[in-house]
Specification:
By secondary structure, the chain is mainly alpha-helical. Helix content is 36%, strand content 8%.
Length: 246
Amino acid sequence: MNPLIPAATLFLALCIPSLTRTAQAEDSPGWDWTAASPESQGLVSGRLEGVWTDLQAHHTAIFLVIRNDKMVFERYAPGFNQTTKHYTASLAKALVGGMAVAVAIRDGRLALDNRASQYVPQWSDDPVKSKITIRQLGSHTSGLADAEEGGLPHDQLTGWKGDFWKRFPPPNDPFTISRDKAPVLFAPGAGFQYSNPGMAMLVRRLSGRRKRPSFARRREAIIGRSPGRMTTPCTRPMAMARGSNR
């Protein structure tokens, strides 16, 4: 397992409470991100500097921490700044899936410990998948296998893992594959396994095609990005730069 994944999980734990409050930005047209010291939001500057040092050793280019709707820590590697466009890869999972969860929680449409089978009827009769919760999909503890194998490039993968990345039309699209073909490796909640299929299920259920236009507008209001440039990794990568309405 990648040793940085627990740190990433901790980072998201710090930010998720802020996401539900940030979802209220849609009701405040004049709202914008503001800066604050880490200490004012219950964090420690020295520890964040230490995390940034470790991330730089692994070639991280940009590190931004948001806590309670405040930007408390912001660092850039040489050659990068606030307006540099950067390939974001799996950051799309947090910005699309995470924001979808925040909006849905604020609307009272779900709770983190709801069973995913409430929104995925095909899982209702599965003795294991029926126990997976929204929280477990988002925290990579659902037990769903990842669509990776031994560090191979995606175009060299075979079987369902290879098909997951090829963006075939239904029923061989990445979402149907995640729902029907990705196996469960352990009991939901019993361990950690980074899972692209797990995140695909989360995003698909919360921002499905029939709801996508409405959600895209609300997401844009929250974080100030054009909805056409935000997609999940299993559909198309996204690139973004920090704008005036961060």
